[in-house]
Amino acid sequence: MSDKVKLSKTQQALLDAMAGGVTLTYMCYMGSFNPVPYYFRSDTHQRCTAAATALLSKGLVEKFDVMRFGDHRLRIKK
């Protein structure tokens, strides 16, 4: 899937994890409780915003399960 797209090690590791079933969840801005929006992994619950944003901009992943206030999840593009 990513044969022609140059990925960093972090991006490739995240894409490989997503191929194994990991989804990424976007949490939008929520005031002082959550001052910046971010993505986190469903397996480790660690933030991965930079790598997720890069994969999204390169067209390798897609948004799904979009909720009312902009929260959504990412999966590998079919």
Largest sheet: 4 strands, antiparallel
Q: Domains counted in the coordinates: how many?
A: 1
How big is the Rg? 12 Å
Tell me the strand order in the biggest sheet: 2-1-4-3
| Topology order in helix (H) and strand (E) letters | HEEHEE
How is this fold's topology laid out?
Elements: H1 9-19, E1 24-27, E2 38-41, H2 49-57, E3 61-64, E4 72-76
Antiparallel strand pairs: 1-2, 1-4, 3-4
Summarize the structure.
With 78 residues, the chain is of the alpha+beta class.
Question: What does this protein structure show overall?
Answer:
- The chain is of the alpha+beta class and 78 residues long.
- Helix content is 26%, strand content 22%.
- The protein has one domain.
- The chain is built from two helices and four strands; from the N terminus they run αββαββ.
- A hairpin with a 7-residue loop joins strand 3 and strand 4.
- Helix 1 packs across helix 2.
- It is globular, with a radius of gyration of 12 Å.
- The protein starts with 8 loop residues before the first helix and ends with a strand.
- The mean pLDDT is 91.
Provide the descriptors you would attach to this structure in a database record.
78 residues, alpha+beta, 2 helices, 4 strands, 22% strand, globular
